[in-house]
Amino acid sequence: MARLTCGLCNIKRFYKPLELREVMGNVTIDQVRAKVRCEKCGRKESMRAELFHPVGQELETIRFRRLVEIRWERRVVWRDE
What we know:
single chain, alpha+beta, three-stranded antiparallel sheet, 3 helices, 17% strand
């Protein structure tokens, strides 16, 4: 399991590594930390990422963030001539 934590907001989010790999590609956990941003405060500098194995009671209390879908936005860019 992957745990991403914001040092300022003290928010912890738990992800399944296969779903993170689908979104970010085959990267290390240190590279994941560099790519994510806190949803509450919007900062990248205070993010921590680690892999761990939950055991016993901890596994029952964890709520995972699950990947529902990936949307690609189409944006129009104009140029004046």
